[in-house]
Amino acid sequence: MSLIHWIEARPRSARWHSESGLPLPRRVVVADDRTKASDAYRLACEGTALLWRGDFHNARQLLRAMDRRVGRRAPGVQVQPAEAFHGHRRHRAHRARVLGKLLVLLEEDHTLTLRRAPDVRRACDEAYGPPSGGPVAVALTELLGVIGAREWRERGVPVPALCARIHPHYGVFAPTRSEYVDLVARAPLPRAGVRTAFDLGTGTGVLAALLARRGAGRVVATDVSARARECARDNVRRLGLDRIVRVTGPELYPDGRADLVVCNPPWLPARPASDLDLGVYDAGGAMLHGFLSGLAGRLEPGGEGWLVLSDLAERLGLRDRGEVRAAIAAAGLRVADRLDTRPRHSRARDTGDPLHAARSAEVTSLWRLTAG
User: How far is CA 86 from CA 79, 269, 276, 347, in A?
Assistant: First the structure.
């Protein structure tokens, strides 16, 4: 068990928890409404964590002041795309380390006992599970993420292709980018029909639900993440599709064969910093290549595999152009068709983003693949 220790009238300790993999703080001091942002930023940069004991809203203001001091990394002049990407990730990691030094203490029942603090017990129960083992210290940035996730889960994300809302859980990638869902909604189904479909890496279950709505007789959705599996089950139950969609895992492929296999792997072949990054980063393209190498043996005669993938990795220099087509051919597959779409999300229009050139030119594709 990892513990943080500090002095507050007497020596005290609490369990340390970080979903994003922040390291255990070795030195902790108490901070409150009198703490200056310049002092907090300096201590955080030196590796000292600050346990906040003042007003909750003042803590948020201090966090914003520290964030301004971290600043936003300006795009380099004539920097290669891969260098810009790695520099951007390093800056984000530095920012996370610095801001992650401002801590709050959750009591044994997940109560946050700060002035003007919201009731975070339900949000923490959903993110962390039932409380146990005494008070726990978390980064304020993480707690704000937990609170935001509870709000997303409550109101849901509208998915026009479903004419419904999907309710993401904490730590599960939300379907806020609708273009990949729209591709799956408009791609022509295999001529032989879809008695059974697989959705590999289902996440919130949005594509599994869409396949069921498009007439698949049975959908088996898989995910490596227990959180994602719980989230997908919750969503298909909300949509009244739990008799059609079965959620399983952690294996990529379920048993048997399917008329249609859909896979929307993480788009960037880079190492995730924590499990929270699994929806974005696929180290070495392992999931992509696992899907392709196993597809031919899992298709029914006349069946198709749909690979939904952005070319952002190629535009950032993280994957060679032609690598996807080469992997498709090496797996004994043929490209029957490809549907393309352009991004509509706000980051593609953010000219201040260090990765703007790649994001604005990005193309998302649905590759229709057949065996042999």
Answer: 11, 12, 18, 18
Rg (CA), the chain: 23
Nearest to 311 by CA among 341, 290, 333: 341
End-to-end CA distance of the chain: give it in Å, rounded: 52
Cis ω before 250 (30° cut-off from 0): yes
CA dihedral in degrees (203, 208, 213, 214; nearest 10)? 130
pLDDT of 62 over the 60 cut:
yes
The answer to whether 229 touches 151, Cβ cutoff 8 Å, is no
Q: Which of 362, 358, 356 is nearest to 75 (CA)?
A: 356
- Other CB atoms within 10 Å distance of the CB of residue 178: 18
Residue 248 phi, psi dihedral angles, 5° rounding: -145, 180
- Domains parsed from the chain with CATH numbers: 3-152 (no CATH), 158-371 (3.40.50.150)
How far is CA 281 from its chain centroid? 9
pTM for this one?
0.91
Q: For 9-18, what is each residue's pLDDT tens digit?
A: 999 999 999 9
* Structure-token pair, residue 182: 């729209």
Burial status of residue 49 (CB atoms within 10 A of its CB: 0-12, 13-18, 19 or more):
buried
Q: Are 312 and 299 in contact (CB under 8 A)?
A: no
Q: Closest Cα to residue 269, out of 280, 289, 283, 287?
A: 283
Write the single-letter amino acid at 277: D
Rounded distance, CA 105 to CA 56, Å? Answer: 11
The C-alpha atoms of residue 20 and residue 277 are separated, in whole angstroms, by: 8
**What is the reported pLDDT for 112?**
97
Q: Find out whether 30 and 8 touch, Cβ atoms under 8 Å.
A: yes
Q: Which residues have C-beta within 8 Å of that of residue 12, sequence separation ≥ 6?
A: 5, 6
- Enter the DSSP assignment of 336: E
Q: Give per-residue pLDDT as tens, 87-136.
A: 889 999 999 999 999 999 999 999 999 999 999 999 999 999 998 889 99
C-alpha distance from residue 113 to each of 63, 194, 272 (Å): 18, 54, 33
